[in-house]
Amino acid sequence: MPKTEKEIEIVLDGKKVTCREGENLLKVAQANGVFIPALCYFDHVDPPLGTCRVCTVKVKGKYTAGCQVIAKEGLEVEVMTPELLDHRKAVVEMLFTEGNHICPLCEKSGKCVLQALGYEMGMETPRFPYTFPNREIDYKPKHIIMENHRCIQCKRCVEDVFTDEGRPVFYFQQRGKETFVAVDYEQEAKLSYEQAYRAMEICPVGTILLKEDTMEAPGFRKYDKVPISEKSPEEEAKQEVKQQVVNPAEVKKKVVATVSLSGCFGCHMSMLDMDLDLLDLIEVVSFNRSPFTDIKDFTQRCDVGLIEGGCCSDENVEVLRKFRESCDILVSVGACAINGNLPALRNWMPVEQTLREAYLETPTADSTALIPHHEDLPKILDKVYPCHEVVKIDYYIPGCPPGGDHIYKVVQNLLLGTNYEVPYEKFKYD
Ligand code: SF4
Ligand code: SF4
Ligand code: FES
Which of 19, 39, 216, 357 could form a cystine bridge with 52, CB 3.0-4.6 A? Predict the structure, then answer.
């Protein structure tokens, strides 16, 4: 139905809203402060591509792509039900697991719509197994690099990148799970720098990257500051939490334990980065088992345990279980504890191959090299497990590493109920 000037009423989650007949549902929802996520949807590609399904809503009890729903009299749409929120989150999780999405290693990090949706939806570890597709990176085009293993096959580039003569530059090749986006090298070479840059911008993820160009530095990227579903000033005002001043003299000291499992110790370095805040913190907490105190075994029950790193060995599992037994509240700190992060890159290969590559096939290994093996050494697990797959975790502090001030505020919130707000941009893995 073409868009007309006729004003009509439709119903979003039981609430009547006014819009123009024929208007796209995503636009109507946006104008009325309802956030429907979208990935393949692109303003001027009409009809909408409808390839990603992250915009799924329900019309008359049936799932449908929100970007393909057109406003007409009497339309009733379900958008924000718990079922649909979870459904859309599952789609985003699937997209993450279908590709090799390791954000800290990706040029598009901070400007990527898929990553922003992951944050927006509170995705931690996807519920589906990673598939780690083996798709070749194509360096042959003149202007761009194609990191095909991150392509979500949204079709934006295929439908919207053309040369001045109107020839397409990208096309789908193969079928089923072998499908990938191929480049017509001859046509791609005719693109200007600006056109190639636009192709990179059109791609909602980090597949099309411009050669000899990098994204902005952290802090200046598209999603560094603004939540993807921007809140109205009124909503922001409602959420504003007054910071409370804590008088240390009135507070009985709480006890904190920390440990680094399979991580790089970066989260602990971040805790030390609290600088002078650390002095404030030790007015109100004392540390028990922790590398900070060098206390190796718990000497008392603790209020909070902060865990850095995931579990890559039987020793990590034993230590983590001991923390669960000994702490009232357990917090996964940083990406390695939350999703395995870089240590989990070995998860796609058998453990024997990991050991062989690490000890026997590195450039520094000589003919005397051995894979260490002794009954006193920790046994390496088949894969690296995030902490919540081993014990119950109560809270998560994302980041790689999370900032010291962020950890400080979370600890204060948990122990002292101070209600400090942690800004959106702090919840980043990249
Ligand atoms: S930034 Fe986006 S494209 Fe890059 S790895 Fe993360 S989710 Fe994938
Ligand atoms: S290369 Fe990018 S724009 Fe093209 S289909 Fe893949 S994800 Fe979409
Ligand atoms: S945004 Fe609707 S299907 Fe992709």
Answer: 39
